[in-house]
Design goal:
alpha+beta; 2 domains; 4-stranded antiparallel beta sheet; two-stranded antiparallel sheet; 6 strands
């Protein structure tokens, strides 16, 4: 039995494949290297859980990201787009800056930090929404406003809070992933 280490992340068992023997057939889903060896994956269980949790957290981040986008657009998106036509798109930059946080899904610590800082700009939306509850929406070019329903206002505020919480969890999870003992080959 020969072991092959792949960047200290995965330990694989490699053994000879003879498909004529009943005790060692090649099955569907097995990895065959050069037709001679069958590779069995013995990935560390903690690392598998870590990867699964990272994927789940990234999925929740994307869901909260789109929920926030829909809520902000339904709150005052039409006005922002109308004003952006005459100001060369400058309000769209402020409106879209929290969504630069999507770069937190990379593995570079600098881009993770930049993405987290850009997600923190959603705090300005939260402060404005909390200070002006129930939210008002501009209905025409003359500046007339209409009050949003309490449920819609609550949904906007809740989407901002959930987005900030999940962005913070993802940031902490991505930053501290390099300090896990199973990543460096150390044991407790």
């Amino acid at each position: 039995m020969v072991t092959d280490k792949d960047d200290n992340k995965t330990v694989k068992e490699v053994y000879h494949v003879d498909s004529r023997k009943a005790d060692n057939p090649v099955r569907k889903g097995d990895t065959v290297v050069e037709g001679q060896y069958k590779v069995k994956d013995n990935t560390n269980i903690k690392e598998k859980q870590f990867r699964r949790n990272e994927n789940i957290l990234a999925s929740f981040f994307m869901l909260s990201y789109f929920w926030l986008l829909i809520c902000l657009y339904s709150w005052d998106g039409g006005t922002i787009i109308f004003i952006s036509i005459f100001t060369f798109g400058l309000p769209l930059l402020y409106y879209g800056f929290p969504f630069l946080s999507i770069i937190m899904l990379t593995n570079n610590k600098l881009t993770i930090s930049i993405g987290y800082l850009s997600s923190l700009t959603a705090i300005f939306y939260l402060i404005f929404a909390l200070s002006n509850f129930p939210l008002k929406q501009i209905t025409d070019e003359a500046g007339h406003t209409a009050t949003l329903t309490y449920w819609h206002s609550f949904s906007v505020i809740l989407s901002i809070i959930v987005f900030l919480l999940i962005a913070t969890l993802l940031f902490l999870y991505k930053i501290f992933q390099g300090r896990c003992p199973w990543k460096n080959g150390k044991s407790h």
